[in-house]
Structures are given as C-alpha cells and as structure tokens.
C-alpha cells in the first residue's frame, strides 16, 4: 500500500486516488512497467500485490498546477529554500511584478520498495520522466553506507541543482542539502531505520501566456531497514 502525500519536512496531507490529477501512475519491477489503475477516491491511493521479488519502483507524475504569489516574501523564501540560484535576479531583470505573478509546477515522484530478499547488485532504471532522480545503487543493501544518485532533465544530466535530503526517524526529521556535480551526480549518506526523501526543484521562465514561471519537482523516497 502507498499513500500520496503533499507537504513539508516529510509531513503533509494525504490525497486519494483521483485519475484527473495525474498523467502517469506506474509500477515497475522485474517483470517490466505496468500502469496502475485504482478506484476513484481510494485511500491509500495504491493497493496492489507484488508480481516479482526484487526492487519495485512506484512512479507518479502529476498534472501541472498553478500557484499565484500574493506576497513577494513567499517567492524569496521559496527560491532560497529550494536553492534556485539566480531566480530572483532573473525575475527583477525581466521587470515582472512582485505580486500576482504565476508559476506552473509539476511533480515527478518515485518510491522504491524492496520485495523479498535483497540483491545488493539490483538497480532501478531511469523511468524517462522530464525531471527525475535515479538511484544508482540499492539503498536496501545493509552493507551500503551511501547511495549515489543522478538527476536527469529530459534524460540529460542536471548539474548544479540542489537536492534536499529529509531523513525521518523516531527523533523527528533531519534535513541536509547538497548540489549535483557537473554530471548531475550526488552522493547521499544512508542511515538505518530511517525513511529517506530526496527532493529537487528546477525552475525556468515560462513561454505560456499568463504564466511567468514553470517548475518541475523530482522526488525519490525509500525506507532504509
């Protein structure tokens, strides 16, 4: 079972299965990738049986949503927190207003689940998302101390993008931030008994009429045993 959650600091509101809200909802395992179809209003949003042992990846791509900024401080805090370097300067250089401007955003989320015995050599493959965090190792390997990941934008490396790592355990949630290297790679420290959430955001000026910015959000979650 898996829930769709939207919030901050690894906490937030749970949303039901509503096909009108997403473009893709899939399950990938050793047998391949299959679309998931639930019933409208299901909570949790996903209930399914594993088809094959090994790494299983759940993928969810939302439809774009629009945010209207009512306060300039909200944009300042957002771009600072997500490490969106140069966004404020670009906004001011374009002579955009400080209130009432719009941003379209889209979420590209993945969750990794271990089914059956752990194979340390098992790897997930890129899912072909517009913006995607790809694990290059098996985080369920008890001997693994770190996890190398790669951030891709339209299948190409995304360099110098912030990745926020949220680790949620019994003592609360800790947050670490780092940036991808020139080839889009980053090395993540793993902790036992902790749920990990990796999150990255990229934002560009929009070419759509009435929309000033477009952002894509990539996330990857897994529970370290």
How would you describe the overall organization of this protein?
Helix content is 8%, strand content 48%. It is mostly beta strands and 225 residues long. It has one domain. Strands 3, 4, 5, 6, 7, 11, 12, 14 and 15 form a nine-stranded mixed sheet that branches. Strands 8, 9, 10 and 13 form a four-stranded antiparallel sheet that branches. The chain has a two-stranded antiparallel sheet with strand order 1-2. The relative contact order is 0.17.
Could you give a short account of the major beta sheet?
9 strands, mixed
Distance between the amino and carboxyl termini: 17 Å
Number of helices: 2
Calculate the mean pLDDT score and round it.
96
The helix-strand sequence is EEEEEEHHEEEEEEEEE
Uncertain ranges = none
Tell me the total number of β-strands.
Answer: 15
Question: What is the 3D form?
Answer: globular
Q: Structural class of the secondary elements?
A: mainly beta
What is Rg?
18 Å
Helix content class:
under 10%
**What percent strand?**
over 45%
Number of domain units: 1
Index terms:
nine-stranded mixed β-sheet; 2 helices; mainly beta; 225 residues
What would you say about this model in short?
The chain is mainly beta and 225 residues long. It is 8% helix and 48% strand.
